[in-house]
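Exercise 7. Predict the joint structure of the components listed below.
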Amino acid sequence: MSIARVAGANVSLRGVTVGYPGLRVFDDLSLEIPAGVFTGIIGGNGSGKSTLLKTIAGLLKPVRGEVLIGGEPPQSARAYLGYMPQVNNVDWRFPITVRELVSMGRYQFSWHRRLGSLIRNRDDRDAIDSAMEMMGVQDLRERQIHELSGGQRKRALIARALARQPRILLLDEPSAALDVVLDDQLFDVLCDLTDLGTSVVMTTHDLSTVIEHYAEVICVNSAEGGIVAQGDPSLILNEDVLRRTYGRELAILSRGDVHDDDGNLEDHHTFRLGDELQLHMDDHRHQQGHHHRRP
Ligand SMILES: Nc1ncnc2c1ncn2[C@@H]1O[C@H](COP(=O)(O)OP(=O)(O)OP(=O)(O)O)[C@@H](O)[C@H]1O
Ligand SMILES: [Mg+2]
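Solution:
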């Protein structure tokens, strides 16, 4: 299995206004994502995480402003940009095998293009095999994609993005639906990739992993003007930022952390989440040097 060393690409958004017919999700958004770093995008449901990723990937065109990947517009950056959509946004009835799905990563985002001319040279074959191996789907290679389980679908989609050997990898909730072991494996693969230069930008709902391992976090909430905060998660994720990022959902996030002295679940006290995080972060600061991934 070979992971290619690549020069990571940075991302620049300048004055970007983007959304859907009748819905403006971001207005005049400017944002820089450093190259070669593990960056997480967090936010509540409907806060704009996927919209932001699709905009960076060039799948959603801003009505105003500019997106640059490694200094180029996303259309020109396609050859070195890997994108994994949120699993429920994919048509799984399409009649292709896992290997064919992963092979598409060498070419286009589109499901329909170039199926006839796939697997044409050795570099392609190596990249495809290596991507399947990294995501543990090589045994599923001849299976039809509609037969796959939720977690298997997710791994196949990530493998498709990896097959491109991208300078920047954009992943929309790769962790959800993976079991603990596979999630750890995925995380190791992504860390290896950032160590070799690749920029990894992924949305996630797993706050504790973000705090522990990510070099950079972007807190998204379109209802709060777009980006609530950005930076080193152990420095910026405080109660105020989380409250503005998650709004009403904060109470739900804190469920399970809130016990009274007898171990019974109390009514939600949103400030408790802040306390828990504070503890967690202090803990983390004592273990210097295991932040993965600022270059
Ligand atoms: N294809 C679409 N057409 C119209 N509106 C959309 C579309 N996709 C998303 N939206 C809307 O845009 C807003 C942002 O959605 P987005 O999918 O970016 O949220 P998200 O943060 O990824 O949420 P989740 O955690 O549920 O994946 C929401 O109000 C959503 O309803
Ligand atoms: Mg989403």
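Discussion. Residues 49-50, 86, 172 surround magnesium ion (ligand 2) (CB under 6 Å).
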